[in-house]
Amino acid sequence: MIFRTMSVQRQNIPDKISDAINRVDAFDKCTGKTKYINDFKFDGMLYAKTLRSTRPRAKIKSIHIPELPDGYYIVDKNDVPGRNRVKILIYDQPFFAEDVVNYIGEPILLVVGPHREKILHILSQIEVNYEDLEPVLTMDDALSADSPRIFGRDNCFVDYKYYKGNPEKAFANAQKIIQRTYRTGYQEHIYIEPQGVIGLFEDGKIKVYGSIQCPYYVKRALAEGLDFDEDKIRVIQVATGGAFGGKEEYPSIIAGQVAFASIKTKRPVKLILDRKEDIIATTKRHPSITHYRTALDENNNIIAMDVDIKFNAGAYAGLSDVVLQRGMFSAAGVYNVPNIIVRGRAVCTNNVPAGAFRGFGAPQVFFAVESHFDEIAEEIGENPLDFRMRHIIKKGERTSTGGILRQEVKLPQMVERVNELSHIRNKWKRYSEQKGSIRRGIGISMFYHGCGFTGKGEEIIQGKATLRKYPDGKVEILVSNVEMGQGALTALRKIVARTLQIPIQDVIYENPDTDRVPDSGPTVASRTVMIVGGLLKKCAEEMKSRWNQQDKMEISRVYKHPDYIQWDQEAMCGDAYPTYSWGINVVEIKVDTITYEITPEKVWAIFDVGIPIDEKMLRGQFDGGIVQGLGYAYMEIMQSSNGKLIQDSITDYIIPTANDVPEIVSETIDNPYEYGPFGAKCAGELPFVGAAPALASAVRNALHTEISQIPITPEMLMKICEKNK
Amino acid sequence: MKSQNDKITFILNGEKVSYAGNPMDRLVDVLRENFEFTGVKEGCGEGECGACSVLLDGKNVPSCIIPVATVQNKEIYTVEGLREVKMFQILVNSFADAGAVQCGFCTPGMMISAYALLQSNNNPTDDEIREAISGNFCRCTGMNMIIEAIKLAVNRLGETE
To answer: A67, A559, A580, B14 - which has most CB atoms within 10 Å?
Structure first.
């Protein structure tokens, strides 16, 4: 069974690729026709609910299960036919806990049956007898010598270091050394659709439907957990109600669970997390502590940096290794720092595992580096904009990992444009001299996002895209990349339709099904348009050249990095990314110095994403990313206390609503990338990265104070300001 | 055996229906499971996110915190029941044209709240629009394009009058 996604509205593609068209999925989504995972029912389908650990670290001594009514089942570690480990980067988290649990929310077993109320009743009667072990709850604890070892010898999943130039010598010659520490908190994705999957076991073959970003990640995890041949596993993505990275690695766990359950019960099994479970148990943005030590010469130019980055990875490794790397490669920001040494650690603690989230490690470090630039400028008495401008990296110069920037860096033009729009130079000076209880502030951030996978990632994946022509003149896109709200269904169709000069309704693109589509890689790293769209454009060009000769044809392309890319993973040296997208944000705020409430008033944003594939869809990414980033900066508070999340519901965890969002003015600047389709680069994550540092910068401007932590809560501001008085 | 009197009867998308299950069942489950109106989405189960919004006698309410018993003799509309209504169609076109739809999971609830607003106010201010949809979370769009979509619908409704 293939779920036809929608009837696509007739639209011709404009000559200029950036000119907007309407999304192909808008009508079905508005009218409730789009089916999400929880909307599917299968004959005889059972429901599942998870029993989770209530302890941050404990041995499971015994589990008391009540007598089960007919038709109800327990599915646990004993029902895993293959290896009880979810393969993400390493084999770490079990599908179901074995003899120990390592975080609150860790899955222990499923109760499966026909009626949900009865399932809840059974769950409430299960008693787990734990023997508590001493947990490691914070990064400081994990790194102290006398705490328990919960991973390896040092409680670090990874401990990396890279450098450029000769930092030691530069520090020895420094006229001034400035040090600061920056902290960021958890962030929860709050995709509005909670995670969910359905497993079916039919004729010796497992089928899993799900709200997922990466069908082939799920497939590979299932192959290990089931010990099945790959041709006995089929993974089908269904309409996905938001993901933001949250449905990158986590769905592999629950996909395995429903697969085991459907084998045991011989029935389709549906598992939908409720919101509270989704918050407690699924991945978050890594909390971070970043220390900067920066050396200045006699002209107050930065000559060296020593950066120490720590990410709280939680109890299992997940994707923390690569999230951390992206953070580490952001350590110098958009600046040319001639000598730099960067250490990064992903620290194991008995908390919910952190993972992929829009920006993927970069937002934490960009908050730190941009804050540090503000605070250095303040200390040397310079305008933060001018101080940044003196250090902006240029084409031909080397990034922190020693890669050469081959494309023009248009930040100087972007700064001029953002100043024209926002008058930041004048306002910054004016607001610095304010008195009174209601203050205004304006702040800036400059940032990039490395396009596609870090390092050799794209070379390892070797994404393959296929384009198929049918005799009726229709063309089908066959890729494993998914629509999760970002617009893939429309953008990839647009690239193909524009290249073939056919109307968009003649391009078919169904939600991926691993039995039908090649592995074009996961829907992550802002890679779908640039990498997979680039492959499809090549397929379409080839197809066009033979269009009239062949009724039926199928053309595939496999990704290969441009020849110039050099990367040494051991030394972390070379081109960390094939190219970069760039951004500048200016945020203007109002702060009430009696209540310490912050109100964002207006945001101006300029982005270089190469050539926009669709201006309207991009604005959706810009607005959405910025608002999510503003939430990260001052609203979205999530803390762990004794391994338990204090804000564990959507009532307690606050995200921006229509009453909280400011006006946002965004523009793009063209800067075509030779190897992207129509010159496009990455765009999905970039707009998230700059909002928090720009807001923090505005708070500094309004209140003349250091801000070393996000989210910036009224309580925190009050403490800082009272201390400064 | 339950008598006719044990049933909850109400008007659902223009048709008289009855429900014989537990009167404390959540309206969202009854609408989705028993009547298969899956345009009603569940996002949080605690009345915060607005994805499950439906019209209850013309007002937008979160159906996840409403026991079905309370809708006895009342009128419920989900997006499925509004597809042929002109004002709703104008809203749909405006959402599509303004780029107000991304993942789409909040969208049906958002449409319900926008529809409820326009039914009671044919010329809302920006602040009234913001307030009307402030109980509908959207994590994708950043909200401004949704606000613009509703303004576009207001203009189009004005033109058609």
So the answer is: A580
Q: Is A194 a member of any domain?
A: no
Predicted local confidence at residue A13, as pLDDT:
86
User: A505, A536, A558: which is the final residue of a domain?
Assistant: A558
Statement to judge: residues A535 and A581 lie in one domain: no
pLDDT band at A491 (very low <50, low <70, confident <90, very high): very high
Q: Are the Cβ atoms of B108 and A32 closer than 8 angstroms?
A: yes
Domain ranges in chain B are 4-81, 82-160
In this predicted structure, the answer to whether residue A7 has a pLDDT above a threshold of 80 is: no
Per-residue pLDDT band at A6 (split at 50, 70, 90): low
Name the architecture of domain B82-160. Answer: Orthogonal Bundle (1.10)
Q: State phi, psi for A184 to the nearest 5 degrees.
A: -130, 155
Task: Give the pLDDT score at A87.
Answer: 86
Q: Judge if A112 and A248 occupy the same domain.
A: yes
Contacts of B35 in chain A (CB under 8 A): none
Using the predicted structure, report yes or no on whether residue A305 has a pLDDT greater than 90: yes
Amino acid at A711: P
Write the pLDDT tens digit of every residue in A596-636. Answer: 999 999 999 999 999 999 999 999 999 999 999 999 999 99
At residue A4 the predicted structure's pLDDT band, cuts being 50, 70 and 90, is very low
Per-residue pLDDT reduced to its tens digit, A567-607:
999 999 999 999 999 999 999 999 999 999 999 999 999 99
Q: A261: domain range?
A: 39-133+200-273
Given A242, A486, A624, which is nearest B142 (Cβ)? A624
Question: Would residue A332 count as lying in a domain?
Answer: no
> β-pairing, A196-202 with A205-210?
antiparallel
For residues A549 and A600, membership in a common domain is answered with no
CA dihedral A295, A297, A300, A302 (to 10 degrees): -40
| A156 falls within a domain | no
Q: Give me the CATH number covering residue A597.
A: 3.30.365.10
Which one is the CATH code of B4-81: 3.10.20.30, 1.10.10.10, 3.40.50.620, 2.60.40.10?
3.10.20.30
Mean pLDDT (whole number) for A1-18? 70
Exposed e or buried b for every residue in A626-655, given b needs 16+ CB within 10 A?
bbbbbbbbbbbbbebeebbbebbbbeebbb
β-strand pairing of A464-469 with A475-478: antiparallel
Please report the pLDDT score of residue A10 as a whole number: 78
User: Residue A468 pairs with which residues in a beta bridge?
Assistant: A476, A554
**Cβ-proximal residues to A158 (8 Å cutoff; 6+ apart), any chain:** A320, A321, A324, A344, A345, A346
Structural domain total, chain A:
3
Assess: ipTM above 0.95: yes
Q: Which residue of A has its CA nearest to B89?
A: A31
Q: How many Cβ contacts (< 8 angstroms) between chains A and B?
A: 173
Q: How far apart are CA A692 and CA A698, in angstroms?
A: 10
CA A260 to chain centre: 28
Residue of A22, A25, A659 lying closest to B97 (CB–CB): A22
Rg (CA), chain A: 26
